[in-house]
Prior knowledge:
The chain is mainly α.
Amino acid sequence: MGRLTIQYTVEEEELDTEVIRLLKMATAKMGQLTYQHSELMSHKTLDEIDSTRRQLAAIDHHFNDAAAIIKGYLNYRSNVGELTPESMQAVEQMLRGDNAYPTED
């Protein structure tokens, strides 16, 4: 099964909780990593290596998702001061999910 990219919104106050959720998922999966080999040069060992690599990839995806949220937030915060009052209003409306954008009179 492949990975899908999804987008969703959360309140700014919930960002910490969302990042913590992703990091906890990653660290929990790290704690579940196991590797046992009885016969080193075997198909079973290859299967175990493949399984471990897939688990590591899932962990990496969680860390990547958390990093993307943090980068996006930091980028947003650094650009807020550069916005005009009109563009700030449009951004706030977009973040609230309003479909109406301010119009020039």
